[in-house]
Design goal:
Blueprint (H helix, E strand, L loop, with lengths): L1 E4 L6 H11 L3 E5 L11 E5 L6 H7 L7 E3 L3 H9 L3 E3 L5 E2 L4 H17 L12 H19 L1
Parallel strand pairs: 1-2, 1-4, 2-3, 4-5
Antiparallel strand pairs: 5-6
Length: 147
């Protein structure tokens, strides 16, 4: 199965296209505002408002043989711990080998931003290269998950 942390996910269309080609059940999880898909492989899950409710829904279900798409690092860490394959929206895999460092860096940057109001972060714009890298990474992850 594919679980998508859908709030602010720029690759939902690509996930649906690739997942359908592989005939894999997909859960598009959000707090609302996502138009339900008519695709029989897609289930749109709307969770109640609240901090990390969608993340908890995904983390409680994703495990070995599943693929999770998220840019939320704490969610990714829980899913990796449960045996799921995790990809960020730009195709970067989050694995047992790198999730600890990524989580520590995230926490450090959050602490730095909290201590210095002039230190602002912001991601780079999502590019065509990111989309292409994501598609390749999703194909690879789905093949690996099927083994």
């Amino acid at each position: 199965m594919i679980y998508v942390d859908a709030d602010a996910c720029p690759v939902k269309t690509e996930i649906e296209r690739v997942g359908s080609r592989h005939k894999i059940k997909m859960f598009i999880v959000s707090n609302g505002g996502i138009r339900p898909s008519q695709n029989p492989f897609v289930e749109t899950v709307t969770v109640p408002d609240g901090p990390d409710v969608a993340d908890m829904w995904i983390a409680d279900r994703a495990g070995h043989g599943d693929v999770v798409i998220t840019s939320d690092i704490p969610l990714a860490a829980r899913c990796v711990e449960n045996g799921a394959l995790v990809l960020k929206h730009n195709g970067e895999p989050l694995t047992e080998a790198n999730i600890g460092n990524i989580l520590a860096t995230r926490d450090l940057m959050a602490d730095m931003r909290a201590s210095d109001p002039f230190l602002q972060g912001g991601g780079k714009p999502f590019s065509k290269t990111d989309r292409s890298r994501f598609l390749n990474a999703l194909e690879t992850a789905l093949r690996k998950a099927a083994q």
